[in-house]
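Hello,

Following up on my earlier ticket. Below are the two sequence lines again, exactly as submitted.
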Amino acid sequence: MRNDYIPYPARIVSARDETYDTKTFRLKFTEPSVAEDFNFKQGQFLEVSLLGRGEAPISICSSPLEREYFELNIRSVGSLTGAICRLKEGDILYVRGPYGNSFPFKEVKGRDLVFIAGGIGLAPLRGLIQMVLKNKKDFGNVSILYGAKSPEDLCFRDELEQWSEVEGTSVYQTVDRASDGWNGRVGLVTELYEAAGIEEGAGEMSNTTAFLCGPPVMIRFAARKLKACGFKPGNIYVTLERYMKCGIGKCGHCNIGGVFVCVDGPVFSWEHVEGFTEDF
Amino acid sequence: MASKALPKDKIPQAVSILKKQYKVIGATPKGKNFVFKEIEDPNEVTLDYNTTILPLKKFFLPPREVIVEFNLQSKEYRGEDIKVEPKVFFGIHNYELQAVFRLDFAFKNGVSDETYLKKREKNVFIGVSYIPDDFHFSESVGIPTDLKEGFDIFLTRYDSHYRVEAMTEKGREIENAWEELLVPCDYEGDPVVHFKNKLKQSVAGIREIFHGAYNHPIWKETARKCYSCGTCNLVCPTCYCFDVSDEVILGTDKGVRARRWDSCQALVFTKVAGGDVFREKRYDRVRHRMSRKFAYIMDEKDRPFCVGCGRCVRQCTADINIVDVMNALL
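Thanks for your patience. The regenerated structure is below:
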């Protein structure tokens, strides 16, 4: 009998500190046949667990073009994620999936792209960013707008720098609270819009697609402001957070109106989200 | 062709015959109430009951169900083997089986959940007619008392007899096995029964009404009475939301990952790691449950997930009546 809840062991190849409480784990399935069958798309998530600690949905933060490994960016916020963040190279994590839908990729070729992320919200976008930048000639200008609570909370700092060096790619960063040595911007991620050429009254942004991920309050403000700046709701993609317990549309935890974030999402166009009966 | 009937005093014998081949599950008295349980003594089963405390879902989606067993020391783990034994569900009201069909839809739709579906194999259902009490309102949700959809045999009560109608091959086999207990009968047709408890209108169009009722005052009015205790979820035959968590047996290296019934009325139900709660207000949660029953999820025939059993009204700790809430919207 098939049991959809059985996880598969994956070995930690490397564990990199992103911030004081966040790590990026590079993983490989211990069973070659499982690794072989594992295909995911940008924006999908896994149910990640430790035996005896429980399970949580975590988005895959690496590019699906990378076949040798996959990566998870995990912030220590509770019992499970705390225990995961104490793991070292060689330790085992258990995963099942991938689940959910994905960000459009081929569909947005030839367009300018804006990525807007808050905190570890950069993680679900990272795989897509890597794919786009690897195929940069197929895309227009790329802007990455990234905000965090403090400079110490910024993830993927080396990569942000590398991304900014790719031709036609700009990276803008901001923090809510500056600390010593921070010479960058202070303020909300939406305050980076102007620098990235997103302005009210500047006309329709018909050739630009935006991808958003972050805390719900950020998503609401950032998406509404994009609309005010000429983005069509159908050209804004957001990824929504819920604590999915099953990943297959059964447990009910991610139900919003008639949709299940785990199977109908986690990626939604803003046009779709605006039509939700229930507030997201 | 003359019908056949099972005399009331032959019920224990009929159950004994079933027990030769099947596990038999039926309603038995418990205090002033009734419960579904596996029948050991054929004399304990009753066909004359209003409704049971818990619905049949407990047999297919147990309150707590192990999905993975593991050992922390050896790191070995495996999925739970589900053994399926042939079961007869004896003396089941039609709304009860309809609820099972709603659950089947939920667990089959999209990715099928084999952990549930496996337990739905080798099930035989023997229905029985019932007289609605003050709480049943099934007719309003499209389940009149003479709906026999899905039963293998249906027993219709007339005085001291039950007319036996076999509706499937399995049902005919059982009818044959009962042969010596049955008597000829000339009862025809179904008795007309009336529901005292009713929605103001039938289910058609209710979904649209819900979409327009997001800010209706009834949600806050109902929430003022509600304790968010979750009893409605536990006793509802179509509530199937669950939580998944790990348990380690104290003093051992053994543990299990289990799924358990959960309640959308609990504040933590929508809590995420960052601390956000998506249904923070009690009225958000009250509205969510009602919307799940009548608008968000419908089965393949566009039927709602409420079957009108009335359990959530009977057992509500705050005397909230789903029929009154619905009628305020209609």
